[in-house]
Each structure stands twice: as structure tokens, then as C-alpha cells.
Amino acid sequence: MSAEQIERRSLVRALLDGRGSALVVSGLGSSTWDVAAAGDHSTNFYVWGAMGSAAMVGLGLAHAQCDRRVIVVTGDGEMLMGLGALATIATARPKNLAILVLDNELYGETGNQATHTSGNVDLVKIAEGAGFVSTTTATTTDEGRALCDLIRDGEGPVFAVAKVKPDRPDAVIPPRDGTYLKLRFRAAVLGQANAEP
Amino acid sequence: MKSRVDWSADVHQAMRAAGIAQVAYVPDSGLADIIRKCASDEDMRTISLTTEQEGVGLTCGAWLGGQRAALLMQSSGVGNCINALSMVKACGFPFLAIVTMRGMWGEFNPWQVPMGQASAATLQLANVIVHQVDRAEDVGETVAAGAHLAFDSSVGVAVLISQRIIGAKAFMVSK
């Protein structure tokens, strides 16, 4: 079964089961449901909007928490909206930042319109061209396991694409009040006394 | 005419005093001295961006991790930030932008005028509080006050530095 296609929920659950002290940022839409389905966590920050910003939230966080792993989990559509961030992140070279794109080649939340990755656009080649230190593409479940290792432990900045089945598991809705998510995250990372300014 | 007040040094000092640790920027000639001072400040990390929108995400991420960040940009970049600024409003993130103005005082390039003229209103519509500064001697204390407002009250603040302070870009036009 090693050539089995990757299921996004299973991949994200396997990745986050071994998250250790990693801080997780998710991009809007299905990626957020996937991260929530693996278990809501105080050090998850779900970016419910601001499309194209997830990777840059990860960069600011990775700079501020340079001793902790920062994992960004987002979709192909969200990443395509902020492609310049790949150049910025590769230039900043944060050792502790890893970006995972769950690539279903679709805008899954808006009616399954094709994204550019369904054609000739290869996000990993773009990341390599930008200068990411570690990159990989996974298309099978076996490759998915190696991808998880790279995301968790590879030398950063890491950029990985998982080509996932174009199915649409039920939405798992995590908290969406931004102020709550922010304060909860800061309390978990900085201590309750430092959550507020 | 350029002022003899070293307002760029004042901005850098105000940023230092506010504990800004990450400085994201898309360059402008009016910001060049500030960027240089921040880059040589060992307590600050400068991050060059491809577009101003990236700076909004970066400043929010920095705050999540316990650091203060600021975004430096020219007025033409304001429009690039708008949807990303929903995150500042929705989460009550502090956000501090220092914006050098074009398209206002003695502008030569008509393409700079639309965004320059619309910058303050655009930021306000995006829930960012605007402090406009027209005198070089006021720049430092306005950045200091803007940083307090942003980081102590968890709101978005933009300090708009007048083109009159920076000096209109001079072009030689052959007729």
C-alpha cells in the first residue's frame, strides 16, 4: 500500500502527534480544519482570514521563538496568494521554520476551482529557487512519513508539499475568536502573566 | 527643503526605546537612514519584504512569540496591506507602521498621487489609527507615542511622515 495517495487528515494527524513543543500556524480553510481535527491546542494559531499571510505569521513567530520549532500548515491556494513570502523567508533563513503545503490543486472552500498547481506551477521548485535549505514533495503515504520527519526535524527553513487526495473531509471548526486565540497562544508560550501587553 | 533635525535618528531611538525587535520594510529613499540604523542595531533584526502585506503577518507572528515588530513602508505600500490588516482588527494585535509619504507635497510623479492622497483614509477604514506628522522635530515623539498606543492598547497605528519633512524627490525634466 506504499503507493497509496495521501489523505490530508491522516498526514496532519501523524505530523502533529509528534509535534513535541512545536508551535503551529494554520492557513485559512481546509488546512485549519485538518489541524483542528488533529486536536485543538493552545499553541495552535489558526489564521482564519488574511489570505496569503500564514507563512509570514510563521516567520515573525520563528524569529521571536528561535529555540522552538514553528510549523506552518497551509493550502496551495493560500500559499499561491503569498508567493513573495517564499523569497522573504528563504532570505531571512530561519532555522526553526517549516512550511507544509497540503496541495489538493483546488480552491476547496469555494467550489473546487483549479489552482495553478493543477497545471505547471511547482511550489517546491519555486521554494528551491528562492533558496529554501530543505525541500521535498510527497505524493505517497510512504513519502508522507519522510515529509513529516523533515517538517519536524529538518534544517530550516523547510518547505514541503504534500500532494493530497482531492477529497473534502468534514470541517472541524476550532475556536475562531482572534483575541481569544492570540491570548491563549501567548499565555501558553509566554506565561499567563505575559499574555496581555 | 530638508530639515536639519535628524528625524531618522529620532525614529530609530523611539523604536529602540519601545523595544522593537523586528523591523520589516519595503524600502523608500525617505526610510533609508532609519533602515540603515536599524540594520546596524544589534537588538533589532531587519527583514526585507517583497510586498508590504507580508509585514502585517510578520508583525502579528512576532507578537504571538513575545516580540514587538514594526513595518516601514512608503505610502504606495499602504494599499497592499488592507486585507492582511483584518488580522490586526480581528485579533486585537498591536501593529505599528511608519509610513513615508509620496504624492502629497510637491510630488513630481502623478502615479504616486492616488495612493498617497488616499493613504490616511484607507488606513482609517482598515481600523488603523493615523498620526500625521508635518514637522521634523515632532517625528520622534510621534513614533514614541504611536508605539505606546499600539503596544499598550493593542491597536493598529500608522505614523505618516509628511513629504514636506522628507523633501520632494527631485527629478530633472527635459522639456
Instruction: Give the overall shape of chain A, derived from the CA principal axes.
Output: globular
- The SSE string of chain A, one letter per element, is HEHEHEHHEEEHEHEH
**Uncertain residue ranges of chain B:** none
| Estimated helix fraction of chain A | 25-40%
Given helix and strand content, the structural type of chain A is alpha/beta
The share of residues in helices of chain B is 40-55%
CATH superfamily of chain B: Thiamin diphosphate (ThDP)-binding fold, Pyr/PP domains
Sequence of secondary-structure elements of chain B: HEHEHEHEHEHEH
Biggest interface in this structure? Answer: A-B, 39 and 38 residues
Name the CATH architecture of chain A. Answer: 3-Layer(aba) Sandwich
Number of strands of chain A: 8
DSSP strand (E) fraction of chain B? Answer: 15-25%
Neighbour order of strands in the largest sheet of chain B: 2-1-3-4-6-5
Q: What's the CATH topology name of chain B? A: Rossmann fold
Oligomer: heterodimer
The major β-sheet of chain B equals: 6 strands, parallel
State the CATH architecture of chain B: 3-Layer(aba) Sandwich
Number of helices of chain A: 8
Let me know the average pLDDT of chain A: 96
Describe this structure in words.
- The complex is a heterodimer of chains A (197) and B (175).
- With 197 residues, chain A is an alpha/beta fold.
- Chain A has one domain (8-194): Thiamin diphosphate (ThDP)-binding fold, Pyr/PP domains (Rossmann fold, 3-Layer(aba) Sandwich).
- Helix content of chain A is 40%, strand content 18%.
- Chain A is built from eight helices and eight strands.
- Chain A has helices at 8-17, 30-37, 54-64, 76-81, 84-92, 123-130, 141-153, 178-190, and strands at 23-26, 44-46, 70-75, 97-103, 106-107, 113-114, 134-138, 158-163.
- In chain A, strands 2-1-3-4-8-7 form a six-stranded parallel β-sheet, with helices on both faces. In chain A, strands 5-6 form a two-stranded antiparallel sheet.
- Chain A is globular and about 50 Å long.
- With 175 residues, chain B is α/β, with parallel strands linked by helices.
- Chain B has one domain: Rossmann fold (3-Layer(aba) Sandwich).
- Chain B is built from seven helices and six strands.
- Chain B has a six-stranded parallel β-sheet, sandwiched between helices.
- At the A-B interface, α3, α5 and α8 of A face β2, α3, α4 and α6 of B.
